[in-house]
Amino acid sequence: MPGIWRSHHPTPVHSRSRGLRAISAGIFVALGWLSLAAPQARAGVTLVQHTSKDAGTTSSASLAFPANNAAGNWIGVVIRAGHSGQVLAVSDTRGNTYKQAVQFNQTLDAPNGETLAIYYAENIGGGANTVTVSESLANNTLRFAILEYSGLTTSNSLDVTSAAQGSGTTLNSGTATTTVGGESDFR
Q1: In the chain, what's the furthest Cα-to-Cα distance?
Q2: Dihedral of alpha carbons 153, 2, 77, 28, sign
Q3: Number of C-alpha atoms within 13 angstroms, CB side, residue 29?
């Protein structure tokens, strides 16, 4: 699930120090673009650890990171809830604040579709950590992955997002135009 990093180095739009700006997240269908920032002074964005869970039919599930989180890192939570129109909530035992990066109701799969989402927490607290994902509609499946990254900026890390659905052999999550140079995308 962590994907492939590709680096691009366009001319910076302004002089704010950033490094990583675009992350494209394709979860089960083409979900979209997330544009995230990293200070250029750092060595780069690194996937520290990740794990995932197929929680089955439930409205809430928890998953612990395999090792302690490092203070100041970034957590991403990639969610697939087995019915469109879900209201999702993400929390953890460290008290980190999770923000919704993108949420998309996929309606092509009959009869119920799926809700796909990515949530994130910046500048996280260090130590042992368990993430809990809850969904609003009972009796549906829940799958999610948790990923810890180092090297991302500790605030205002999200720039733009994009999501789309379609059918056929070519996935296309739409386009996203970032505002700062020094970009990488994640697929």
Answers
A1: 50
A2: positive
A3: 24
Round the average pLDDT of the chain to a whole number and report it. Answer: 74
Nearest to 124 by CA among 88, 149, 103: 149
Q: Which residue has the tokens 């130590």?
A: 127
The answer on pLDDT for 85 being more than 60 is: yes
